[in-house]
Amino acid sequence: MDKNSDIKVTSKPMNILLAEDNEADVKITLRAFSGSKFKNNIYVVKNGQEVLDFIYNCGKYQDRYRFPAPHLVILDINMPGVDGFGVLEKLKKDPKYNFIPIIMLTSSKDENDVLRSYKSGANSFIQKPLDYKEFAKIVDGFSFYWCHINRLPSGA
Amino acid sequence: MRQLAYFNNLRITAKFILWFLFIALVPLIIATYISYSTSKKVLEKEVANSLLAVADDKANRVESYLHEKEKNVTTLSYMSDIVIAIEKFDKAFYAGGMNSPEYTAVDQEFRPFLAYYQKAYGYEDLVLIRPNGEAIFSVKKKEEQKSLYEIVLFNKNSELAKVFMRAKESSKTEISDFEYNPQTQKASAFIAAPVFRGADLVGVVILQMNNDGICELVKDYAGLGKTGETIIASKIGNDAVFIAPTRFDPNAAFTRKITIGSKEGLGIQKAVQGEEGSGTTIDCMGKETLGVWRNIPSFRLGMVVKMDTEEVITSARELRNTLLKIGLALLALITLLAAIIANSVSRPIKDLTAVAGVISGGDFSARVKSNTKDEIGELANSFNKMTDALVQAKANVELEKEKVEEQKVLLEKVNKELDAFVYTASHDLRAPLRGISSFASFLEEDYKSKLDEQGKDYLNEIRKGADRMNRLIEDLLKLSRVSRIKNPYEDVDINELISSITERIKFDITHNKVDLKIHENIPIVHCDRIKLGEVFLNLINNAIKFSSKNNKENPKVEVGYLDGGEFHKFYVKDNGIGIDPKYHSQIFGLFKRLHSSDEYEGTGAGLSIVKKVIDDHGGNIWIDSEVGKGAAFYFTIPKDLVEKKKIGEILVEDGLITEAELEEKLKKQKAKETGTPPDKIEV
Fold this sequence. Notes:
Strand order of the largest sheet of chain A: 2-1-3-4-5
Oligomer: heterodimer
Shape of chain B: rod-shaped
Strand content of chain A: 5-15%
Largest sheet of chain B: 6 strands, antiparallel
Order of helices and strands of chain A: EHEHEHEHEH
Number of helices of chain A: 5
Structural class of chain B: alpha+beta
């Protein structure tokens, strides 16, 4: 955070869809994002089905104004119902939405998970460290990269 | 031996036929030979006997015939008419010769009587001779008186002269040898009888006889079969001259002769020389004959009655031929019989072979049909039983295979469950941990002012605990991964591997001022690169860890290689605190720690992972250390284990052995190589 303190934030806030079933993890992640100087709009859903509903504006997410199409999707792997891989594979196969960058955020560092994610078209794979301070640094760096350095398609 | 092998390789049928023929032929041949030779002997004896009888009979008849002829002449010589006739012819011849009227008168007076006598008794001629040898009368040769006279006077070797002389000297009737008469073209002999008046010899009467009578006797072939004949010969000079025709040569008389001492006609040679006997000889035609030879001494004749041996043994031959024909028929019969018997023996065997072929082809339902109760039937039954047992055994094996298969499936399931557990553990166990750690941090950050030192310490402990728990979980996962994941073996440059590892822990090395020495001559080793890297990393890390604290000198770590024969032998040595030998056997246990985590951080999983990897490679690991004297970890990797394991895995893949069997074998092999009891080995 300190390292990036001199960076001037010029970019618009982005819509980030965060899929995470664990309440505690949601709180931790949101705190890390809110602590970052890159302010973004975080939409939280609790499982894979909700991710798809959100993107396709189904069910309770029919209101496109309230639930705008996300610029980024952050997926946990372990989720009840449709899990992170399910969502990843579905979206990356859909020509309408496969441009949306998908970041896998998980507590696992299983090689197979990493490989499977990239093979399925994930754009990034981040392991959540145990220590919060480290995690906060990672989120800061993540925001800096995705919202400041990286260019996203504006078509959404 | 080769012949015997050839015989042994024959089909059963051929063997049977050969044996049967052998068994049947030998007695058959012996019987044929014995009966042939016996019958031949018997026949020869019989023929010899009959020839003997014929010969004796013929000899007697010839003798009596000649005796009769002789007697005729003797009788004539005693008749008064002949005495008177000789005296008158003598007187007339002496007075005026043959052409004188006196002679003619006498001739007219006596010729009818003398001619009648000559004719009536079947003589050729009748001659009257004066005692001085002058012929004074001949029935036939009136015109040849002169020559007759000359013969008697000058040819003293003529039969006529000889017989005249003999009769004159002996004063009794004499008979000459036969000689050829060119005029009659017949053999003839002279019989001479002296004629006396009182005691005075007045002349000799000579009758010339031909061989017709003898020919008649010879021509009688009764009892002589087809080739039997009689030969009568007289010894003239050094020859036995035939005086009568033979059965197959009507002109034999005086044309056929046998020189004494020649090889042929031994019988007649002996006969004319006065011997008598019988036997097998070669006749003048060169044929083998069975003959009897007799001598007729009174007339100096030899006689042979003979028969061709060929004819004698013909019946024996016929008997032999009949026997041979029977033998041949028997042979054919035996061959047929042998073939039938052999077939009855070999057919079940052939059936058995065919069924065995079917079974070995995989059709276990085939059975031998047998309805006999002999050995072959028993064999068939045994074979069927064996096949049943085989089917049963196969079924058992299938069952076992199924069981093994089931266990394999079960094992796979358990493995999968374990995988799932490990996966869950890595995700789900760590999520709450992160919660614990993170919220402790939040408390610390958000309530800094409200917490006293003790509160802060407690929060710190909470975070440390979570951290430690996290590392334990990670090590546990690592160990589980080491067990489950098998990387392919490859040729690994160990020096390169170690330098890549030291690169990773460069910070620790420089930070602790470690004097790290790595041997340069470590060879290429065939192994699991990633896992062996784990081994070196753990061992080097340990060495640094336990030699960096409380050490008066700088930590020294040495990685070396020794050639251990069938093994590559590595060691990692340090000058650290060392390990009490009483703990040597425990330190490879999971989470086994000899020190508190405050003193030396770590979970205690490292050496367990190291041991697991070495075990998987078929090697061994041990420690050489004492407290305060540093520690040296030695481990071995078999040089040829790779191949063994690979081959083993191929065998398992192909289903030739089960995994359990392979493990058992590897265990034994390893026990042999390392000298450890098999029950203490883990593969």
